[in-house]
Automatic annotation (TrEMBL):
It comes from Flavisphingopyxis soli. Keywords: Bacterial flagellum, Cell membrane, Chemotaxis, Flagellar rotation, Membrane. It is a peripheral membrane protein. One of its GO terms (cellular component) is bacterial-type flagellum basal body. Signal peptide: none annotated. Belongs to the FliM family. This is Flagellar motor switch protein FliM.
Length: 305
């Protein structure tokens, strides 16, 4: 009787191990970059529309897409042999970012600029003409202000145009294995004509100015200084406020009041809903009882407001 040989798990394990290394891993230090980049992209979308819509004389909608983390070499290889990149600096950040402008978008904008339609068939060109490069320079210069304004919401950043290129040899903005954040934007003109542009940030560039990020990133980013909290807690522990209560409100006739003398006892009937007063406001209500042989006040509920 033939027996079936056991199946070795080694090939499957090797395949999983190989697959695990085929994807870029996000470093834990990148987690603080993504939220501020998403908010910047939302702010920048309006600036892109304002700068690019007049070039086509058609209504434009700009939609920020999900940001992508990739390595520099992987991103550069995906661009092909010819690309249009405009470079910017965001001091006090260290380094430069890149704006990728595709052939199809530039050719369509040039055609629309000279009286054509933005919705023509997308070009298959692999090189930029002199007219394309002139328009790229114009776009690059016009986008420096909205990029700076978007980042200026989160710190003392300003944007400087730093040239452009269509040569892959001049496209390097970081080391080969450095992490990049690619922020795509979809440009949709009247009808269904759409294009994609990317703003590419080296992660290290954004992190280089972390201390410049202002608390305007959001209330969750504001944390109290531990030393200040300790001192404030100690100071509040030394603050005393007067607390009093009114146990009863008995009534007496005028003759009874006139005949009071030392040693007289005024009975206090059991009462509920007795107020606990701080200053001139009722803080809580409760009832009178006894604890450890002493009269005691038990809080039943705290007053609102």
């Amino acid at each position: 009787m033939a027996t079936q040989a056991p199946i070795s798990p080694a090939p499957a394990a090797d395949a999983l191990q190989g697959a695990a290394h085929s994807f870029p891993r996000r470093d834990s230090s990148e987690a603080d970059v993504m939220p501020i980049a998403r908010r910047t992209a939302k702010l920048l979308a309006g600036g892109l529309r304002t700068a690019l819509q007049p070039l086509a004389s058609e209504r434009l909608t700009v939609t920020p897409e999900q940001a992508i983390i990739d390595t520099h070499d992987s991103w550069l290889a995906a661009q092909g042999q010819s690309m249009g990149l405009a470079f910017y600096q965001l001091p006090p950040m260290k380094g430069r970012l890149a704006l990728r402008l595709g052939h199809d978008l530039i050719a369509a904008l040039v055609d629309a600029f000279f009286g054509g339609s933005i919705s023509r068939a997308k070009t298959q060109k692999t090189e930029y003409s002199p007219a394309d490069l002139r328009l790229m320079h114009r776009i690059a210069d016009s986008l420096a202000m909205p990029i700076g304004a978007a980042w200026g919401e989160f710190g003392s950043f300003r944007c400087l145009a730093a040239g452009l290129t269509d040569d892959p040899e001049e496209a390097k903005i970081a080391k080969g294995d450095a992490a990049l954040m690619i922020q795509p934007f979809t440009l949709t003109f009247a009808g269904t004509t759409s294009f994609t542009i990317d703003i590419v940030y080296p992660i290290a560039m954004i992190q280089s100015a972390r201390e410049e990020w202002s608390p305007s990133q959001g209330p969750e980013a504001v944390t109290a200084d531990p030393a200040w909290r300790l001192e404030m807690g100690g100071a509040m522990a030394e603050v005393f406020v007067p607390v009093r209560s009114i146990l009863a409100r008995p009534t007496m006739t005028l003759p009874e009041l006139a005949n009071l003398k030392p040693g007289d006892i005024i009975p206090i009937p059991p009462a509920q809903n007795i107020p606990l007063i701080i200053g001139d406001r009722t803080f809580a209500r409760g009832s009178l009882g006894e604890q450890n042989g002493l009269a005691a006040f038990r809080i039943d509920h705290i007053e609102k407001g």
